[in-house]
Write a structure and sequence with these properties.
- With 392 residues, this protein is of the alpha/beta class.
- It has 13 helices and eleven strands.
- The strands form two sheets. It has a nine-stranded mixed sheet, sandwiched between helices. A two-stranded antiparallel sheet has the order 5-6.
- Helix 3 crosses helix 13.
């Protein structure tokens, strides 16, 4: 069976809500990433056979198949198709899986997987909110409510449940949040993100580009302290989750180009990494965010590996209890986890986070001369993807 290789990987620097990327239409952001992926391997754009983009808020500027619209806004020929997928926070990680499966099957040779989310211009929950306002009802049907005793699925409650189940205090979570910022600060100052970030010119409210380049993740709190993080109000008075120990709302676009051996030959490109294994599972939708734990166990078993075989792991920091529970349950090494910081500091552009983490993982393995990397993330509805890659 053909292999699946990553030949280019790029992301925008994250933008805060209402921040330096808020002037960018999400289609335009995604289009610039598509062009950069092609440019980095000096490829004929017509060789791209499909574009698969993850996007959670598929409404407004991100509606009507944002992937196809990004193709039409890019330098790719209109003969290149595009499709948009929603596996919640794992949308663009699933895009990687679909792209890898396509080239491994031999039905395609060159596919771009990526994601985009402008959480400024299309606020989180927009599809459900708009549907509710239009009187179209709620997504939890009667059968779901009967099966789960009328529990309203909530990622915030899931985070509280995980913290309680694994015994994490508010201080534990805040210390982890501080670590995320400290690692992101160190990586930024060392230039660790320079090779993976596509600088974009800041656009004003009218969409006109300025001479100011956005090339540093805007969510990093360079002045963060345990005291400042601990001073942020809890989301629930009796809980342990705050906005400071949870992922940041973020604008951004990300992508990777995935090819097989024929694609490598056609492009004349050298691979950065090989897709070694892919897993996706469903899990309890009430606690919701615990799925990365059994998903990782399954992936390692199927791949014939142990966690000790993995040099670096990216576990999405949707909420601090998630990577902490992952470390505790699996016996992971904190020094290999999210080594350049995570979504608490760098932001979580929902549908774009899968390929954002993958881009960082590919470049971090290369910079450190390491071999295997593992990526996983919790997803709405109680799911998780796991991808294991090998640096080449």
């Amino acid at each position: 069976m053909p292999e699946a290789y990553i030949v280019s990987a790029v992301r925008t620097a994250g933008g805060r809500r209402g921040g330096r990327l808020s002037g960018w239409h999400p289609v335009e952001m995604a289009a610039r990433v598509l062009d950069e992926l092609v440019s980095r391997v000096d490829a004929d754009p017509a060789l791209v056979e499909d574009v698969i983009l993850g996007c959670v808020g598929q409404a407004g500027e991100q509606s009507n198949n944002v992937a196809r619209n990004a193709v039409l806004a890019s330098g790719l020929p209109e003969s290149v198709p595009g499709t948009s997928i929603d596996r919640q926070c794992g949308s663009s990680q699933q895009a990687v899986h679909f792209a890898a499966q396509a080239v491994m099957s031999g039905t395609m040779d060159v596919v771009i997987a990526g994601g985009v989310e402008s959480m400024t211009r299309v606020p989180m929950g927009s599809p459900s909110i708009l549907a509710s306002k239009a009187g179209m009802g709620y997504y939890q049907s009667e059968s779901i409510n009967r099966r789960y005793d009328n529990v309203v699925f909530s990622q915030f409650m899931g985070a509280e449940m995980i913290a309680k189940k694994y015994g994490f205090s508010r201080e534990d979570l805040d210390r982890y949040a501080l670590q995320s910022h400290q690692r992101a600060i160190a990586a930024t100052r060392a230039g660790a993100f320079d090779a993976e970030i596509l600088p974009l010119k800041v656009r004003n409210a009218e969409g006109v580009e300025t001479d100011d380049l956005h090339k540093v993740d805007e969510g990093i709190r360079f002045e963060a302290t345990l005291e400042s993080i601990g001073s942020v109000k809890l989301l629930e008075e009796s809980g342990v989750i705050s906005a400071a120990n949870a992922s940041q709302i973020c604008d951004g676009a990300t992508g990777v180009m995935i090819v097989n051996e024929r694609g490598l030959k056609a492009l004349g490109a050298k691979p950065l990494a090989r897709i070694h294994h892919m897993t996706v599972i469903g899990h309890d939708p009430v606690i919701m965010l615990e799925a990365p734990l059994p998903a990782t166990e399954r992936a390692l078993k199927k791949a014939g590996m142990k966690l000790d075989d993995i040099d670096l792991y990216e576990v999405n920091e949707a909420f601090a209890p998630v990577p902490l529970a992952w470390l505790k349950a699996l016996g992971g090494d904190n020094e290999r986890l999210n080594v350049n910081g995570g979504a608490i500091a760098l932001g979580h552009p929902l549908g774009g986070s899968g390929t954002k983490l993958m881009t960082t993982l590919v470049h971090a393995l290369g910079a450190r001369g390491k071999r295997y990397g593992l990526q996983t993330m919790c997803e709405g509805g109680g799911m998780a993807n796991v991808t294991i890659i090998e640096r080449l």
